[in-house]
Write a structure and sequence with these properties.
alpha+beta; about 220 residues; 7 helices
């Protein structure tokens, strides 16, 4: 997995590759060399590290995680949208970025080749075809007046959730990663669950007392 963080203050930076299938980093180095030839003015650096375990790598590369200070909105982007609509993807990046939000891009591929046969479970269908999780965020000042915090939340819903949902609507396989999703998403049932009606029917059948509740 590679992650890219975009921000006006600190520019662009590629953080890490996480995989035990990458035995040789020479393909990455060749890509680095080609990128410098294509974009000679692009300032960046590439560094590689090897760790004996994920836990060791995580502690070395990431600082302690404190309380959240950002209001988030996310969208799982299917591969076919990346391939067929690159201009729409670029436009969405620019639109959200220029509106004043930051963006995080997490590249992944939890596809059906790994999990055959497909179990009839409640996993959001977008996870099966997505290759990018795009996240838009805006700093959240939890000591600001309630009206300002509400305005910041509306900003993310209007500028982040709206733009990401337009890029990858449910009808084209889009969805939202619930842990980084917009709690005010007007289409939260479809975005978070995908199969909400079926899941709700199962819940009502087996949880008649309403013991388990998420939303």
């Amino acid at each position: 997995m590679t992650s890219t963080y975009l921000g006006k203050s600190n520019g662009y930076s590629a953080l890490a590759f996480w995989t035990h299938h990458l035995k040789d980093i020479s393909p990455v180095l060749r890509y680095d060399s080609a990128l410098k030839k294509i974009y000679p003015a692009l300032a960046y650096s590439l560094a590689s590290y090897t760790y004996p375990s994920f836990n060791t790598a995580f502690k070395a590369l990431f600082p302690p995680i404190g309380s959240g200070t950002l209001q988030w909105s996310s969208r799982l982007i299917p591969q076919h949208i990346i391939e067929s609509q690159p201009q729409s993807l670029s436009h969405t990046f620019r639109q959200i970025f220029n509106d004043g939000a930051i963006m995080v891009e997490a590249i992944m591929n939890p596809n059906l080749r790994v999990s055959k046969p497909v179990a009839p479970n409640s996993v959001l269908p977008a996870w099966r075809t997505s290759i990018i999780d795009l996240v838009a965020g805006k700093p959240l000042n939890d000591s600001a007046p309630f009206g300002q915090m509400s305005a910041d939340r509306r900003f993310i819903t209007e500028h982040g959730t709206g733009a990401l949902g337009k890029l990858a609507p449910m009808s084209q396989g889009g969805g939202a990663y619930m842990n980084e999703a917009d709690a005010d998403d007007p289409n939260w049932r479809e975005s978070f669950y995908g199969l909400y009606a079926k899941q709700l029917a199962i819940k009502k059948k087996y949880d008649t007392d309403g013991l388990c509740n998420l939303v």
